[in-house]
Each structure stands twice: as C-alpha cells, then as structure tokens.
Amino acid sequence: MGYSDVDYDYDYDDEGGIIDPVKLLTICFVLGIWLVWQRYHSILNRAIFFRLAPPMQIKDTWTAQKLPQPSLEAHLNFDGLLPNFPLPNRKYITAYDPATAYHLDTILADSEEEITRKIALAHEAQPKWAATSFDDRRRVMRSLKKWLVDNQEICAKVACRDTGKTMLDAALGEIITTCSKLDWLINHGERALSPESRYNNLIMFYKSSYVHYEPLGVVAAITSWNYPLHNAWSPIIAGLFAGNSVVLKCSEHVIWSTSWFVQAIKECLKACGHDEQLVQLVCCYPEDAKALTKSPFVRHITFIGSEQVGRIVAQDATEYLTPVTLELGGKDPAIILPSTDLEKWISLLMRGVYQNAGQNCIGIERILVHESQYDDLFKMFTERADKLRPGHSLKSPGDGVAPVADVGAMVSADRFPNLERVVHAAVEQGATLSVGGEPWHHPYLEQGSYFKPTVLGDVHPESEVAQYELFAPIAVIIKYETIEQAIEIANGTRYGLGASVFGPVRDDCLKVAKRLQCGMVAINDFGVFYVSQDLPFGGTKYSGYGRFGGPEGLRALTNAKAIVVDRWGWAIQTSIPGVLDYPVRSVTHSWDFISGMVGFLYADAWRTRIDALTKMVRASGR
C-alpha cells in the first residue's frame, strides 16, 4: 500500500499544546509570594552589623611598663599600677601579658554587693528575652558569628596578649571552636529545644505526651583561663539561645581579655534590639565568688576548672540545690596500637601534647606505645620537640617585630617549681628525660612564663607525672606489652575526660575505645569530638559530671517539662470507674479490678490477659 492510499488526518488537537494563561499567572503569583516571603525572612534573620574598638594593647604603637615580678597582685608591690584615686578597702587585679610581663591594666574587683547587683540585673532582663522567638535568638548568633569571622585576627591578638599563646593556637582553640558552636546553634539549636513527642504505653493510648524545654532564668558559668574567648562565649551563647540570662565569672588571670570579649556580646545584643543586661561579667577573686555560687537567683552553674575549686562550687550550690555541670580536667591517654604508622601520626601527637603550651583540658597527657615501637616514637618526639621554638606571637611594645614561635607562654610561672619537681621525680624512678624539664629563659623577655617543651620516656605508669594532670608542654611516653595492659594503664588514673586511639585497623581501635573509662574518644585523631558541637562534652570519674555541648548540653540549661494532653478529647478522657471512686465501696472489688487491669495490660500470655480482663469486668459490674 502506498502513501497515496492512506487518508491522513492533519487536524491537531492543540488543547494540550498551549499553557493555560490562568495556570501560568497562578504559578507566577505563587512563586512571587514565595520569593517575597523568602526575601523578608532573609532580611529578618540577616546578621546585624556592630562595632567594637580594638583594645590599644594589641596595637603596634602600644607602650607599657614591664613588671619585674608579674602577678595578679603586682599593684600592691610596685608603684604606678593603681588608678590615681584607688577606692579604699577594695581589691584590684593586675592584668599582664605572661609572655612579656608587660602591664595591661589594673582592674577593680567586684565586691559581693556588686556581684549580687549584677545577678539582679540579669534576673530582671531575662523574662522579656525568654519570650523571644528562635528567629530572634538565631539573629543574635548569626550577628556574633559574622563579627567574629570579620574580626578574627583582632580576637586572636587579644587572646594572645592576655594568655601568652601563639596566634596559631588562638586560631585553633579560640576562633574555630567558637565559630563551630555558633554555627551549630544557628542550624540545630531550635531542633534540640523544640517540644518533642514521646511514646505512650497501652494504658495511655488515648493521650499525647510531650517534653517542652523551658528557660531556667539566670544561669552562671565559672570558667578557666586557657581559652578566654571560647570559655567566655561558649556558655554565654548556649545560655542565651536557651532563653536564659547569663552571669559569667572568668578566671582573674584573663579578666582583661574577657571584659572585651563579653562587651562584644553586649554590643551585639544592643544592635539587635535586646537588653545588654542579659549578660553580666563578674570580676573577683575566688574567695568572693560565693555571692554567685550561693545565689538563690542562679538556677544552673557550669564550672570549668580544677577539681579542688569544683568541689567548693558544687558544695556551695547545695545551698539552693542549684544544678552544676563540672568539667575538671583530665589525664587523657593516646593509645598507639601495634604496627601503627608512627610517621603518619607523629604530627597529630605533637599537636595534642604541645598545643596551647599543653594547657588544654583534652590535650594528650600520656602516650601509650607498644614496646616494639617505643624507641622509634621516643626518637621522633625528642628530635621534633628539641626544634620547637618557645616565644610569643605579638609585637612587643616599641620593637615593631612579630617573632616566630611554636609554643607560647604558660599563663603563670607559679606552677614551674612543681613541674620541675614531678619531672625530676620521674627521672629518679627510671624515666628518661631527653628534652626540657625546666623553665625556658627568653633572651630579652626575662620575666616571660615559658616552660621548655619536654619529653619524658619510659615513664612508670604509677609515677606522679603519669597520674596527675600536668597542664604543661610535657610529653609522657609509657611502654606497654599487651593491649590488655595498655587499657589497664589508660584507665588507671582518677580522671576520665577524653582519649585517643591510633591504629591501622579501625575495628581494633573501636574495640579499645569502647573499653576506655572516659567521656569521649577520637579514633586516629585528637580532640575532634569538641569541634563537632553536636556531641556532648564531658567526662566521668574525677573529671566531673554533666555535659555541655550538643543537645544534651543545651537542654541542661533548661527545665524539661513533661506535658500530657488528650489525643481525642472529644471522644475519650480519663474517668474514675465507680469501683475505684471515693468513698471506696468494696476493698475486695476494687482490688480485683486493679489486679485484673494489671494482668490485662502486662501479662505475658494472651490467655492470662483474657482471664484478667474477665476478672476486671466482673469486679466493675458488682
């Protein structure tokens, strides 16, 4: 059959070929509304710009008095450190740079009355803040994060000036960790604090159960000196996001830098239209802190510091049964399993020991290595530690030179005699000291608080240097014969904060990690469990209790309130059966009813359940 024989119909139905104008306009209209809403939402949540002038002490042109004997009370011994008209009968704190001994400022310490007043201000500001939305709180967090990223170099210099750390240590321990926490709160904080539904059992089938996380009111944080930016901002931003006001008492060693860091948060709150009194900074010596730890208005305390002071804080908090989260340091082990590639991990191990001059609560305090690899590891540590350059990262007043340093100063030289003592005691017990073990004297900053990076090998696991937290740039290397022995040594201290396990086989590392008595473990890494802010941070044993970080830490700053409502209130609600109603008509019948109900709901066998239901029905009908 040819083409000419076929009758083709060229009449097309165009009904489906042209887009309906009404549909097109409707789509465009809906899309336009969505874009306008997104734009509005973006503007509403956009970071707010604010300014805070950098302190003059980090500028190249700054000049200052060098303290011949730097201490927190240097103003009592040297002229020219106090204000022109010091207040009588008041305490002051001398702030100084531990890397250079240059005087930073002399700051008036708060009295107990002033601490009480600051708590009252936070208490008054909190109810209005508690009524804010998560969008409002996110905007504050987003504004702080933008400011921190934009001003990271200034913030790092401020932290360095007050603690003597290097700029690199400030970037790793202050900037990255704080940005990570802000980012987590912005992206996941609402999810952690939103009401969550809970499962019901059979007896409650007609109910819906929820947990609501409500602000506590005023929460407090007492923090250590090793990371002044992060230790100040971390509890403040968590407390604020949970709807609380926050009173922070930082270590007196870092009151100068912390004052500036806290002022940044106050400026941010003002710029976002909120009350700056939500955040209060307490500046005092430990003996005056009871006005904070025993306050009836403080509903939670986070403490980061020593075991000795932590015990005092926990005891004070019992006055009003105030909940406390304690992070008391650790003696974190790094277990190196047999056949591990030492060259691959030596840089991480070095960073774990010497970062922040060893002043790191999750720093590596003990390295456990199999005897077959001990000599190689000891040699690597000795060669690399001997090349580390102590010093400071900032320009000194008047010299205009920014030196190069690997390990910064320690916050104070007060602990140097004890560090030397425990190192020498370890040597007397058979340990090998290859590098350091003593203070390091800067060529022109004679009063700088430097301790030479130290390597101790073949350390006895029961020696003092292996049992107690050093918080110093000291590598403690311990041999082991079997993995079982390594686990026993790792668990053999009073502490249980963090740990690391290095090895060629992941499953072997996991098996060891699960047997360690601690709160956190990194596999083939060090300290990364803190960079991931979705994880709880804390330890066990004498490293404290409670958690901050992650949903667990954020929820600890709230009142977890259980609320139960009727699922189908229009159809079924709780009622008291007549056999149980007051006054009880028959003890026997009421008991048969309840025991029958228990059997029906919880018995194992269905026959037993049916018999129990029959018993319950009979009792109710009598």
E-strand count: 20
Mean pLDDT across every amino acid position? 93
Structural class: alpha/beta
Principal-axis shape: globular
Write the layout of secondary structure elements.
Elements: H1 21-45, E1 92-96, E2 103-108, H2 112-130, H3 134-150, H4 152-163, H5 167-193, E3 196-198, E4 207-215, E5 218-222, H6 228-241, E6 245-249, H7 255-271, E7 279-282, H8 290-293, E8 298-304, H9 307-317, E9 324-327, E10 333-336, H10 342-354, E11 366-370, H11 374-385, H12 416-428, E12 432-435, E13 439-440, E14 450-451, E15 454-457, H13 464-467, E16 474-480, H14 483-490, E17 498-502, H15 506-514, E18 520-523, H16 528-531, E19 544-545, H17 550-555, E20 558-566, H18 587-602, H19 606-621
Parallel strand pairs: 5-6, 5-8, 6-7, 8-9, 10-11, 10-17, 11-16, 15-16, 17-18
Antiparallel strand pairs: 1-2, 3-4, 4-20, 9-19, 12-15, 13-14
What does this structure look like?
With 622 residues, this protein is of the alpha/beta class. The protein has 19 helices and 20 strands. It has helices at 21-45, 112-130, 134-150, 152-163, 167-193, 228-241, 255-271, 290-293, 307-317, 342-354, 374-385, 416-428, 464-467, 483-490, 506-514, 528-531, 550-555, 587-602, 606-621, and strands at residues 92-96, 103-108, 196-198, 207-215, 218-222, 245-249, 279-282, 298-304, 324-327, 333-336, 366-370, 432-435, 439-440, 450-451, 454-457, 474-480, 498-502, 520-523, 544-545, 558-566. Strands 12-15-16-11-10-17-18 form a seven-stranded mixed beta sheet, with helices on both faces. Helix 5 packs parallel to helix 6 (228-241) and helix 6 packs parallel to helix 7.
